[in-house]
Predict the structure of Fungal lipase-type domain-containing protein.
Amino acid sequence: MATEDGDNFRYLIVQPENGGITDLFRYGILGNKASGAKFFETSDEQTLHEELSVGGDRGGGETPAHRWVIIVSIVMRKLIKFFGKPMEWTGYVVDFLLNLLSLNGGLLGLLFNLLQGKMVIPVRGSATYISTIGHIDGRIDLMVGNDGTPAIQLDAGNRSLMDLCMMASKLAYENAIVIKNVVNQHWKMHFIDFYNCWNDYQKERSTQVFIFSDKPKDANLIVISFRGTEPFDADDWITDFDYSWYEIPKLGKVHMGFLEAMGLGNRINTSSFQQLLQATNIKLQSTNEEEPKKLLPEMGELSAYLAVRSKLKSLLNEHKNAKFMVTGHSLGGALAILFPIVLVFHEEDEVLQRMIGVHTFGQPRVGNRELGRYMESKLQQPNPRYFRVVYCNDIVPRLPYDNKTFLYKHFGVCLYYDSLFVKQKVDEEPNRNDYGLWYLIPEHLNAVWELARGMTMGMAYGPEYKESWEGIVMRLIGLAIPGLSAHGPPNYVNSIRLGTEKHIQMSNL
């Protein structure tokens, strides 16, 4: 299908359910293209030929490394899908038990209240119902200056602004009531709105984002925070491992799952991507954001992109001096950088001029090298506005996989923190695909160190850094899966607040 200016929209969808173990073996080990083709749906034969023969973006013949990465993606998605329901049930149970214990003062308090008939039952969605992420890291206060109060400098990459963004990214895992209470009562800022938007891939309201400002009137700062990958949400993890892409003319190839999470199409009806992107490319008034919904009523709900864009335009019009930040952890980080990507495609120059920047934490890759180069020309000149923070062995920034012949590439300024919280500015985090025997032993040894450090954080750095018992359990899980425990928000909060610099010359950091 072609756009009005003649450009073609191309796509590739990886479909693990369309092939079996035999097909995986024949494609992965023997390089059988017919077996490999079963796992792909493409816009045209040329796209399929490129995928099976040259590995996406580059030529040079078929590569076993490229096939291996595809196989890992398919196998992981199959496994996560198989355990999807048990993961969901486990999440409900864990959330409930953690809240049951905290509301009743721990295990002994729970037993006492039970005997007294005074046991407090958690109510999901209430002001006291905290997410698993919130129990792992219960900190809600912002980093303070020498005078004991938050002093946020509105410069992209500044430590105080980075801390606010990380705390907002962590807070995005909570329900709307909890978020509002923290923003208004603890941060003394102004909660604006919470959105629970439709994700057509997951067929549910699973894309959450909230907006707040530094003050209710004459605001200087507006922050948009997207919720990240929930620990027990199989669909979120499947999205991180997905390799499917959709090519937007003049921009590049974009992760299809992230476009779906933003409400900009669905893979069952691939023409919906083009229709929605083209529809929103028309210069719509902010009062007419419902028009794309009318064009595609089967999408069912207003998209996160349209909802946030509409509200942001209204806020920028209301607060004449305000600028805005976009942030998110994990999957939320991918959506945070995707938001300005689509703004660029829609030529929302007036909006983009008022964007301070994008800060993401533990963010997966969102597109190919072409997309990265184009966006760097828009966001990194004359000064960098997109900062991507990565902690040590975090697995998610290494997804979807990337190698010399593979599609997905990171872009922007990468601030990499090692397990000693030493920060370096690097082009790419070490072990960018998180596999290889030469990394296995160091990663597990590092997990042992992180467990020991976690048990002594409070003594070493002060009571605010003391890790919860839930956090220690995550460290124990890290002994088996280092990249999973490294993904936890506590590592990112600690990195920003305790981090030191090494060989980096950036005056505003």
Remarks:
- Residues 1-6, 56-62, 504-509 have pLDDT under 50 and may be disordered.
- The longest helix spans residues 437-461.
- The longest strand covers residues 190-199.
- The chain is about 45% helix and 15% strand.
